[in-house]
Design a protein that fits this description.
The structure is a single chain. With about 140 residues, the chain is of the alpha+beta class.
């Protein structure tokens, strides 16, 4: 049996996740995206959703920086017009994990980090051949 090995289609996604799942790299990514200057001692809490049996839902990378911003990033090979809906689902699941259910139904305001959503396309031809609207 001399079958050719099938290429792993999500190898770029895997490298992206591995690289930015390190605290220092996540801080550097946020600084580059937001033109900020958070240092290496900045608090980072990773909130990446892993593939759950009952939801089959995972995102590429999620983290909270300095208890202020929750960052959700996706690394895509092609334009996906459903990405805003997927990001909504990701942030809802992430807040579910972060917010105490008892507090949610209480009368006091629950403070949550401000969400920031980023999507990176790694196939330039997709960008050049389509209308992309940044919202």
């Amino acid at each position: 049996m001399n079958q050719a090995a099938e290429p792993k289609r999500n190898h770029q996604d895997t490298v992206f996740r591995m690289l930015f799942s390190e605290k220092e790299n996540a801080i550097e990514l946020f600084n580059a995206l937001e033109d900020t200057n958070y240092g290496p001692d900045t608090e980072v809490e990773f909130t990446t959703l892993e593939d759950a049996v009952y939801t089959n839902l995972k995102n590429d990378l999620g983290f909270i920086i300095d208890k202020q911003f929750i960052i959700l990033t996706e690394h895509q090979a092609a334009i996906n017009h459903n990405m805003p809906l997927r990001q909504l689902e990701y942030i809802a699941r992430t807040y579910e994990k972060l917010v105490d259910a008892v507090a949610l139904y209480g009368s006091k305001r629950v403070k949550i980090p401000t969400p920031e959503f980023f999507c990176r396309l790694y196939r330039q031809s997709e960008v050049e051949n389509n209308d992309i609207k940044i919202i």
